[in-house]
Amino acid sequence: MAKKTVASLQTSSKRLTKAIKMVKSPKSGAYTFVESVMAPEAVSDWLAKK
Predict the structure, then answer these.
(1) Residue 10 confidence (pLDDT)
(2) Looking at residue 1, what DSSP letter applies?
(3) Do residues 46 and 40 make contact, with C-beta atoms less than 8 angstroms apart?
(4) Residue pair 43/19 in contact by the 8 Å Cβ criterion
(5) Sign of the CA dihedral 40, 45, 48, 50?
(6) Which residues, including other chains, have CB under 8 Å from residue 43's CB and lie 6 or more apart?
(7) What is the pTM of this model?
(8) 8 A C-beta contact, residue 16 and residue 10
(9) Which of 35, 49, 50 minimizes the C-alpha distance to 4?
(10) How open is the CA angle 21-23-27, to the nearest 5 degrees?
């Protein structure tokens, strides 16, 4: 499973990060991308999850 983190977003006083994860579908074997915007501290936990 490939994964990467992209772009730091800054809105007013909150600092956010957009994370993109490539996930393989168990049914078809095709890859899809899952995106989420979150606090920078939560990115590694989110990427470690399946």
Answers:
(1) 60
(2) -
(3) no
(4) yes
(5) negative
(6) 5, 17, 19
(7) 0.59
(8) yes
(9) 35
(10) 165
Structure tokens at 38: 């979150």
Burial of 47: CB neighbours in 10 Å, binned 0-12, 13-18, 19+? middle
Residue-by-residue DSSP string for 6-48: EEEEEETTEEEEEEEEEEE-TTT--EEEEEEEE-GGGHHHHHH
Backbone angles phi, psi at 42, to 5 degrees: -90, -5
Q: What would the pLDDT profile of 1-50 be if each residue is shown by its tens digit?
A: 556 655 565 656 678 889 999 999 889 999 999 999 998 888 889 888 86
User: Nearest-CA neighbor of 3 among 20, 24, 25, 26?
Assistant: 20
